[in-house]
Description:
The structure holds two protein chains of two kinds. Chain A has strands at 4-7, 10-13, 19-25, 31-38, 42-51, 54-57, 64-66, 76-78, 87-94, 96-97, 102-103, 107-108, 112-116. By secondary structure, chain A is mostly beta strands. In chain A, the strands form three sheets. In chain A, strands 2, 4, 5, 6, 9, 12 and 13 form a seven-stranded mixed beta sheet that branches. A four-stranded antiparallel beta sheet of chain A has the order 1-3-8-7, with no helix packed on it. In chain A, strands 10-11 form a two-stranded antiparallel ribbon. In chain B, 0% of the residues lie in helices and 54% in strands. In chain B, β5 and β6 form a beta hairpin. Chain B is globular, with a radius of gyration of 14 Å. The A-B interface holds A 31, 33, 35, 40-45, 48, 50, 56, 58, 88, 90, 92, 94, 99-111, 113 and B 9, 31, 33, 35, 37, 42-47, 50, 52, 91, 93, 95-97, 99-107.
Amino acid sequence: DGGITQSPKYLFRKEGQNVTLSCEQNLNHDAMYWYRQDPGQGLRLIYYSQIVNDFQKGDIAEGYSVSREKKESFPLTVTSAQKNPTAFYLCASSRGDREFGMNTEAFFGQGTRLTVV
Amino acid sequence: AQKVTQAQTEISVVEKEDVTLDCVYETRDTTYYLFWYKQPPSGELVFLIRRNSFDEQNEISGRYSWNFQKSTSSFNFTITASQVVDSAVYFCAALSKAGTALIFGKGTTLSVSS
Lengths: 117, 114
C-alpha cells in the first residue's frame, strides 16, 4: 500500500542526546515536511523539502536538522540544542498540482511521540 | 502575514446534533488552497477535503458538508447528525501560491456523546 511510514512510534531521549526520526514515503511525492504538534498549538512547520538535496527551514527549525538524499526519505534529527523536544512529530508529503503550479494536500504518517527522560 | 483561525477550541454535542466548525484564512494572495483534516485519538491526520480559492461551490460528502465564501475567507465544515465516531480534533489548513508548506489553525476538539 502507498503511504508514509514514520518510525519509531515512541522515542525516549536522554538529556544531551541527539535522536533521529525516520520518515519514508512511497507515494512518489516531491515535497516532504516535518511538523511538530504540542497540545493546543496546532501544527508548526520545522523543515520543508521540495526536491532531493534541498530543504528550507520552517518556523521552528532551531535545534533540528534534516537531510534529503533520496526522494523517498526525509529523516529529522532532534539535536541536544533543542531545549524542549518533548512533542508529537508528524511527517508529511505532497504532490505538485499543474493547474495552479503549487503543492496540494499533504498526507501524513502516524507520527512519532518523543519524550525526554 | 498569513493566518488560519479556528475560533472554537472545543465543542461538545450530543449524538444526532448538527455541528459547524469555523475556519477563517487571512491572506492577501488570490490563489490558494484550503483543507480540512481530522485527527482521531490515534494521532494520524486524515485528509478530508481540498478547496481552491476560485471554487465557491458547496461540497457534500455523506454527513459532511463544506461551505467556502471567498468574500469572508471562511471555509466552514458542517457535520450533520453527528456520531460518537466523529469525536476528534479537526484542523483547517491553507496553502497559498506564495507559500511553501501548509499552515494550520490550532484545531477544534469535537466531543460527541451518546
